[in-house]
Each structure stands twice: as structure tokens, then as C-alpha cells.
Design goal:
Elements: E1 3-8, H1 13-24, E2 27-32, H2 36-48, E3 53-55, H3 63-75, E4 81-84, H4 100-128, E5 131-136, H5 150-170, E6 175-182, H6 199-203, H7 208-219, E7 229-232
Parallel strand pairs: 1-2, 1-4, 2-3, 4-5, 5-6, 6-7
Helix pairs in contact: 1-2, 1-7, 3-4, 4-5
Amino acid sequence: MAGRAWITGGGSGVGAACALSLAAVGYEVVVSGRRGDRLEAVAAAVRATGGAASALPLDVADGGAVAAAGRLLEDSGGVDVLVAAAGLNARRRHWDDLDLPALDAIVAANLTGLAHCAAAVAPGMHDRGDGLVVVVSSRAAVRASPGAGAAYRMSKSGAGELVASLNDDLAGTGVRATHLCPGDIATDFVEARPTAPDEEARSVMLTPDDVARVVAFIATTPARVRIDELVVSPSATP
């Protein structure tokens, strides 16, 4: 067993694909998210391939629940890899029609919740002298992406700075962090856009499996290698 991977946003899309890809390279996986039924289905799919998996339902925006989950995981062996794949956006995302309560929820899920997850695992990783945090962020964090909306763009840019702070503060301890910035991914997430993409547009996007393969690659690099930031784009887009 390569270790244990905790995947937030693990009930669908990229998170679910990461559960399968990390199990395939030897990790026990724990999937978290808000939908217990979906988490159980993902865990069952992993077990069907011969992997070890369990479901741990929670909302990453609930700091108390995240801290409790972190303690539970630490008490049962710790977390070797955190894949933070939970994410949120809103249909009303531009300044001329901004949904302010949704802005708060987006920042809570994409940034504050991410910080709580990192804080839940970093001390144990530090004590063991080894650990990896992979933040599945967005190309919107590093390139102009007007369609992504204000809250999403600022939360994902903040995620990049959070990763940088982890690497600055924990350099030399064995703990590494990666800011993974994929372009458009063909998941249900894109249906929340003001205008949902048609089938032709979806056909040239990345797939969840594409991103999950990259996550598995990062998770299997030697401990001496730290991938600070990685942008992954659909080849058909600029």
C-alpha cells in the first residue's frame, strides 16, 4: 500500500476519478463530500477494482466537521496525500448580476474550506516527515478567465497563494504542495455557467480522467521532487 489519500469533492467528477487513479497506484482512498450516496458509490467502484476505499461525508465549508475528520484520520494512521478537489461556482457570477450570498459560499468552499483541510492534515504530515497536498484549482487562477466570475477567480487565485505558503513554511520538512490548474473539464460543473456549453464545446474539454492521471503522476513522484504549480490545458484551446 502506497499510503492513504483523502480526496475532498470525491463523490463525482475529478474527485471520483482521482479515487480510482490513486487506488490504481496503490493508495487506500477516503472520499469526502456532501452526498453520502455518491461517496459510497465511488468507494464501491474502487473496491470493485481491488482497491481499499471508504466514504467520509462532510461539507468542506464546515470547519468543525473538517477538523473532526482530520482527527479521525490521524488517529487511524494519518493522511499521506490530500487531494482537494471540492469546488463551487454560481450561475450569477458577474458584477452586473452578482449573487453575494453565493460569493460567500464559493469562497467558503474553494478557499476557506481548503485552508481547513490543509490545516487538518499538515501537522501530521510534518510530524511524519512526509506528505503531499494537491489542490485541484483552475487555470482561472493563473490566466485571464472572464467567464469564470469574480468569486471563483479570486478564490482560485487565493488557493495558489495558499499552496505557496505551505511550500514556503514547510520547506525541508518533507511536506510538499502542488497547485494544479486545469482548463475546462467536461463535468456537471460547467452546467452552472450562465450559458451551459453544448456538446461540441464539451467534446474538446479535458475529462476527469485526464486530470486524475495528472494527480496520480504527482502523487508518485519521488519525495525529493516538488511540483509547485502545473497548468493543464485542452490541446484544442489557446
